[in-house]
């Protein structure tokens, strides 16, 4: 097995000049490799790419399928200036960027997917390490199952869109996110990760600067729900 021509170190260097990149023929998951690299000091913006992943996982540990030579799975190390209570903002930034790259008609499904014509075209899973000063680092795992060669250029477009949103005012990012978010305005039911809360339902009003989805329950109460606490969402 070898790397496809569009994901070789040379192709990645041409598409991502000056960026720290590690590329592999095969890995258990790029997320695990990126997490270990972040632990040992990987810089902000470092990227891990693999031609094949044996056991990639996304949000809430859900398994992803990344077939050899098809689609695209990668992981990005970020060291944002965010307080711990805003760690979920990374979901907003990354999903908004992925939706832009996936096309004008692409819609965001909070908390972790982008869909086009009803089909998933991108997904995100984020692991963070929190410290006394806030978010020490995050590892952003991304899946683009329909990405086509030249995939190194797709990676470049995704990273450029992410960096643009990281530098933008939160209000501008939220406006673009909510405009594309198909979840906003719907009646939904949210299932939480074990130990973080019961099932809750209501109408999605919009998203907040910590990445939370703001729900209005049948009783009229407004409740913010953080993406990192959620196992899944379904239409009510």
CATH class of the largest domain: Alpha Beta
**How many beta-strand segments?**
12
Report mean pLDDT, rounded to a whole number.
Answer: 95
Q: What structural class do you assign from the helix and strand content?
A: alpha+beta
What's the CATH architecture of the largest domain? 2-Layer Sandwich
- Helix fraction by DSSP (H/I, runs of at least 4): 25-40%
The CATH topology of the largest domain, please? BirA Bifunctional Protein, domain 2
The end-to-end span amounts to: 45 Å
Strand coverage percent:
25-35%
Given as residue ranges, the uncertain stretches (5+ residues, pLDDT < 50) are none
Alpha carbon gyration radius:
17 Å
Identify the strand order in the major beta sheet. Answer: 1-2-3-7-6-5-4
Q: Looking at the structure, what is the overall shape?
A: globular
CATH homologous superfamily of the largest domain - what is it?
A: Bira Bifunctional Protein, Domain 2
Number of domains: 2
Number of helices: 5
Report what the structure shows.
The structure is a single chain. The strands form two sheets. A seven-stranded mixed sheet has the order 1-2-3-7-6-5-4, with helices on both faces. The chain has a five-stranded antiparallel sheet with strand order 11-10-9-8-12. It folds into two domains: 5-180, BirA Bifunctional Protein, domain 2, CATH 3.30.930.10; 187-235, SH3 type barrels. Helices cover 25% and strands 34% of the residues. It has five helices and twelve strands. β6 (119-131) and β7 (134-144) form a beta hairpin. It has 236 residues and is of the alpha+beta class.
């Amino acid at each position: 097995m070898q790397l496809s021509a569009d994901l070789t170190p040379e192709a990645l260097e041409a598409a991502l000049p000056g960026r720290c990149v590690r590329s592999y023929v095969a890995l258990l998951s790029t997320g695990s490799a990126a997490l270990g690299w972040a632990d040992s000091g990987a810089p902000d913006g470092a990227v891990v790419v693999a031609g094949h992943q044996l056991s990639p996982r996304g949000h809430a540990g859900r398994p992803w399928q990344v077939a050899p030579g098809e689609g695209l799975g990668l992981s990005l190390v970020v060291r944002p200036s965010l307080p711990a209570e805003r760690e979920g903002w990374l979901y907003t930034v990354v999903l908004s960027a992925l939706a832009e790259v996936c096309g004008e008609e692409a819609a965001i499904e909070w908390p972790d997917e982008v869909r086009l014509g009803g089909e998933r075209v991108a997904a995100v899973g984020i692991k963070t390490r929190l410290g006394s000063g806030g978010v020490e680092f995050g590892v952003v795992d991304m899946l683009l199952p329909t990405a086509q060669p030249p995939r190194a250029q797709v990676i470049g477009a995704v990273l450029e869109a992410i960096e643009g949103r990281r530098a933008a005012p939160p209000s501008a990012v939220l406006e673009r996110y909510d405009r594309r978010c198909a979840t906003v305005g719907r009646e939904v039911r949210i299932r939480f990760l074990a130990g973080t809360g019961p099932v809750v339902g209501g109408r999605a009003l919009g998203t907040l600067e910590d990445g939370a989805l703001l729900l209005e329950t049948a009783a009229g109460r407004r409740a913010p729900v953080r993406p990192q606490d959620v196992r899944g969402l379904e239409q009510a």
